[in-house]
Amino acid sequence: MASDRTLITLFLDMLGAERGASVNTLENYDRDLTHLSEYSNIALQDLNRDCVRDYLKHLAARGLAPSTQARKLSAIRQFYKFLYADGLRGDNPTLGIDSPQIGRSLPKLLSEQQVDALLIAARNRVEEKADLKSLRLLAMLELLYAAGLRVSELVSLPKSAIQGGQPYIYVRGKGDKERLVPVNDRSLRALEAYVNHMKTQTDTPEKGSIWLFPSRGAKGHLTRHRFAQLLKELGAEVGLLPSQLSPHVLRHAFATHLLSHGADLRAVQKMLGHSDITTTQIYTHVLEERLKSLVQSKHPLAEPSKPKQF
After folding, report:
1. pLDDT tens-place string over residues 133-149
2. Which residues, other chains included, contact 34 with Cβ-Cβ below 8 Å and sequence gap of 6+?
3. Taking the CA of residue 89 as centre, how many other CA atoms within 13 Å lie in the half-sphere pointing to its CB?
4. 308 tagged catalytic
5. Does residue 189 have an active-site annotation?
6. What tens digit of pLDDT does each residue of 198-223 get?
7. Of residues 174, 186, 189, 197, which has the active-site annotation?
8. Active site annotation includes 251
9. pTM for the full model?
10. What structural domains and CATH numbers belong to the chain?
C-alpha cells in the first residue's frame, strides 16, 4: 500500500502536468490533504465515507467558515476521484457527501476616493525617498488597479510581460492561460521609472533576475504575503484598517469602478481572466447594493432611521 505522502504527490503531479494547475492551487491542495492525513488514524487509501464526514464535522467544530470547509471538501473529492480513476481505490468515499451551505457574500470594496488616497500616498513616498522600494510599491499598486490582476499574477510577472512601452501586458493566469491586459499611461510611467531605477542597481543579486519584482526569497520574486503586508502598511497611512484592504480588494475595486463608469461586462470578464461570466456578474450585484443603499439613505422621500430603544 502506498503511503499518504506518495498518493498526495502523485495527485499533485497529475494536476500540474495534465491540468496546468498553478503553484498556489497545488500548495493549497497539498496543505488540505496533508491536514486530512494528519487528522485521520486511517491511511488515506482506506478512508471511508464516515471518516470523511467525521473530518468535516471536525472542521465545523473548529469554527472554519463554510467556504473554507467547501474548499477542503473539493480538494478531497478530486483526490479520491483521481485514486478511483487510476485504480488505486475501488470506490470514491466522497460520493453522497453534500457541501456546506455557503451564503452569497459580496466582495469588499474601496471607493474611488480611497483608491486615489492610496495612490497619492504611494506617490508621496516616491517623491520623499525616490528609492527602489518606494518605486516598486507605486508600480505594483498602479498596475494592480489599472489591470485588475490577481496578486499571484502580479508578483510573478516576468520582465518579458512588458513589451517596449506598449499599452498592455502579458499575463499568465489560472490554468496556465495567457491573456493580454490593457494598462493606462500612468501605470506604464510608474513601471518605467521603477525598471529604470532597478537597472542602476549594480550590487544586488536580483539584477539578473527574470522577474519584474525580484527578491532574495526562495521563489525569486516578491511574495503575495509580503506585498499584502506592504499594502496594509500604506493603507494605515490613509486611515484604512487592515481588514479593509488587501490586494484582492483592489482587484474588486478595479472591476466595480470600471462597470460603474459604463464598461462592458464581457470586456471586464476578459481583463479579469474569468472563464465564466457568472463569476464577473458578482460585481453588478455590488453596484446594485450600493445604489439601493444610496437611495435608502439619501433620497428625500426615504424614511429616517428610527432611534434604537434602550
Report:
1. 999 999 999 999 999 89
2. 8
3. 17
4. no
5. no
6. 888 776 656 778 999 999 888 899 99
7. 174
8. yes
9. 0.63
10. 4-85 (1.10.150), 112-295 (1.10.443.10)
